Amino acid sequence: MKKKWYRSEIVKGMAILLSYILLIVAVFGGVIMMRMGRAGINLESAEKFSESYK
């Protein structure tokens, strides 16, 4: 009985951890997408710069 409860607690903890990781990934992804959307021109100029730098 105790073993089953312990396993369910681990599963619950893993689910919470996974949801936190997904939340962090979503936040970072949103920030990156926003920056890329705002700095689309900057990204293109950065690519040109890296090509000229070679």
Write the layout of secondary structure elements.
Elements: H1 2-38, H2 40-53
Helix pairs in contact: 1-2
Key features?
54 residues; mainly alpha; Membrane or secreted protein; membrane
Largest sheet: none
Sum up the overall morphology in one term. Answer: rod-shaped
- Total helical segments: 2
List the uncertain runs.
Answer: none
How many separate structural domains?
Answer: 1
Q: What is the total tally of β strands?
A: 0
Helix content: over 70%
How much strand content do the residues show? under 5%
| Cα gyration radius (Å) | 21 Å
Task: Characterize the structure shown.
This is Membrane or secreted protein. Keywords: Membrane, Transmembrane, Transmembrane helix. The chain crosses the membrane at residues 12-34. It comes from gut metagenome. The structure is a single chain. With 54 residues, this protein is an all-alpha fold. The chain has one domain. It has 2 helices and no strands. The chain has helices at residues 2-38, 40-53. The model has no long low-confidence stretch (mean pLDDT 78).
